[in-house]
Amino acid sequence: MNEAEQALSEARASAAEGWKTPAERARGLGARGARLPTGLATLDRATRGGPMTGRVLVVGGAPGAGKTALLVQLAHGYAGQGHPVAVLAADEEADGLLIRWGQQGGLSREALEAGDEEARSVLGARVETLPFLLVDAEEDDATVEDVAEELARRAAGRPAVLFVDSLQSARARSTGPDMMTPRERIDRVMRTLRALAQRNRLLVVATSEVSRGSYAGGSWQVNDLAAFKESGGIEYGASMALVMRCSSHEANLFEVGMPKNRLGPRLGFWLSLDPERATFHEVDAPERSRQDATGAPPLPPRERVLAALAGGRTFPNRNALVAGAGGGNRQRMLGAIAALVDEGVIEETPGCVRLAPSGFEPVPVPGSPYRGGNREP
């Protein structure tokens, strides 16, 4: 053995001396994090009492699938329980998230968007008394490390929760100004969040877009875990992964898949959205979803588009509407949207696709919440 080989061997032996033995690991098991109940029965049951600090939970979905609304609801609930909370708004601006927060407290979205003095005053007084930090990534030039460190300082050892919206938009110090692919950026942010969760004993909840293949022109049968394949860092770094999808049959109804769960069993569930209060409530699986599971044909594209737009929902463009209606055959879905625009049932303006504000009355039919409509002559 030459000198170089001898030095390498000694270095390896020295490193091995510092490794933990199985017995040492066994004696150190348990008591590594606090469980924080979410108030959503199935999610708490799947995590055996609530997600744990020191872990990362990722909520994925297509645009308009309810990811940010769920994130704000969880943040609102944890802060109300007295847990220090920080929200990094890197996708939707911080003001938009704060309006959702106000809605969940019963304030009018219209009043907050219009800058109503009374509504602003009430919301300001409420958040002032909560252990709540809201940071706009662009406006405040903040990284995930900046926010996590400030949250840990304020928590002073108490269980705390960091929310990041979203993995695609947030920055870590390691992402820097150098050129890298979107996948490399997401992987670095995800590795950083995992390290921050463990080092500071934080529960981290982050939203993530899913790969286009999982919804654009795709099927509801696409493997949910494969939806994160654009970044292996998400799949491997998260202790729990949820995937949200809009129901293709009923407005304000969302299916939540749980493709990964290191904290317990994988349990899917359904959420109903109260649009006035921007709040989800867990509900039983709709009858239509059970029929679909037995092989019943899905609703036609026209009905799925109208169901997605019901209740005043809007989408930034036709592609987002296709995703919000559950995907499917892309050409057929876009064709149905184009026909509805031509008929005047759907109004399309820059940055907004919605039902026409007047002259449309949904006509219910058996087995479908919506089918077509008519305009007054």
Question: Could you explain the architecture of this structure?
Answer:
With 377 residues, the protein is α/β, with parallel strands linked by helices. It folds into two domains: 259 residues, 3-Layer(aba) Sandwich (Rossmann fold); 79 residues, Arc Repressor Mutant, subunit A, CATH 1.10.10. It contains 14 helices and eleven strands. The strands form two sheets. It has a nine-stranded mixed beta sheet, sandwiched between helices. Strands 10-11 form a two-stranded antiparallel sheet. Helix 9 links the parallel strand 4 and strand 5. The longest helix has 19 residues. The protein is globular and about 85 Å long. The termini are far apart.
Keywords:
single chain, 377 residues, alpha/beta, Rossmann fold, Arc Repressor Mutant, subunit A, 2 domains, nine-stranded mixed β-sheet, two-stranded antiparallel ribbon, 14 helices, 38% helix, globular, disordered C terminus
